[in-house]
Amino acid sequence: MKASKPDLFQRIAVLGAGAMGLQLAAHLANARTEVVLFDLATTGPDPDAKLQQKLADLLLLQPPAFALPEYSRAITPATFQNDLARLRDCDLIIETTTEQGDCKEGVLARVAPYINRRAVITTTTDTVSIERLARALPECLRAQFCGLHLLMPPRYTQLVELAASSYTDARVLDQLAHFAVRVLGKQVVRVKDSPLFIADRMAVCLFSLAWRYALRFELTLETVDALLERVFGLSTGVFRTIDRHGANRFVALLEEARAALPQDRWLAQVQWPEVLPAAARLTDKDSDDTAVFFIKQTGQ
Questions:
Q1: Alpha-carbon distance 219 to 157, whole Å?
Q2: CA dist 262 → 87, 100, 193, 256, 292 (Å)
Q3: Beta strands 92-95 and 75-79, pairing class
Q4: Angle at 79 between CA 77 and CA 81, to 5 degrees
């Protein structure tokens, strides 16, 4: 029996092939949509070489990013330098590039001329203002833009946070909520356009408390992660979560939050080991070797 395709969005572009972009592309492919995944071109005869290797590595990821290995064939690799014209055929565009406002504004401005007027445009950020990013788009596209924040790994986490700018057409949020629930199997919360939204703001504070009490009670990292898994249902605990996402991502998240929320009393008390900022400076954002607290095993 041939699987039916989801309504609303038949071809989806994912801008950026970092950890979130790759795994989100995989989950969209699981939902039987066509996905065009954009990354920077590599020098040499094959501009897709680096992205092809990332997709090959994605097939080895545990827990699996794909429901079936053959679903990976629904992902078409593309480059920002050579393939932006493919955006014209996409009805949903998801920006997932590095968590820096200037970078995201530049990406949105660069792709805007290729976006059709019927497409919905989203960003997965929860650290850069949705209002600010909307202004990077021409006025004719701003009503189609909003925030679509997911947690890692997107196949296995339930929450989707939707955030509007002052320009966003309410029907766009309704479309995305329907798609997230009916097609992706998520639970949707509509949030205000404030730094970290809800989930990550709570997570930063929870992780900080975990480190503080680990020191106070002389607990091992394994014990802390096991307790958080059993009590709070955090499947990868605190320290394995940071290893999975990368120290650079977490430190950037915290720095963005502190800059945007200088009066937040919880963020003012956040404490982390000195190894984190140092590791963040050394971590290649495109590398799979992001572990800081534990030794990483192949495929983990």
A1: 27
A2: 39, 18, 16, 10, 28
A3: unpaired
A4: 165
Residue ranges matching CATH 3.40.50.720 in the chain: 11-191
Q: Residue 296 above 90 pLDDT?
A: no
Overall average pLDDT of the 16-41 stretch: 96
End-to-end CA, the chain? 34
Cis ω before 113 (30° cut-off from 0): no
Q: Alpha-carbon torsion 227, 229, 233, 238, what sign?
A: positive
For residues 100 and 253, give the distance between their C-alpha atoms in angstroms, rounded to a whole number: 10
pLDDT of residue 4: 39
Angle at 139 between CA 133 and CA 142, to 5 degrees: 50
Identify the residue with better confidence: 296 or 61: 61
CB 43 within 8 Å of CB 177: no
In sequence order, the β-bridge partners of residue 147 are 123, 163
Domain boundaries 11-191, corresponding CATH code: 3.40.50.720
Instruction: Give the three-class secondary structure for 70.
Output: helix
Q: Under a CB-based contact definition with an 8 Å cutoff, are residues 178 and 8 in contact? A: yes
| Confidence at residue 288, expressed as pLDDT on a 0 to 100 scale | 46
Give the C-alpha separation, 232 to 239, whole Å: 14
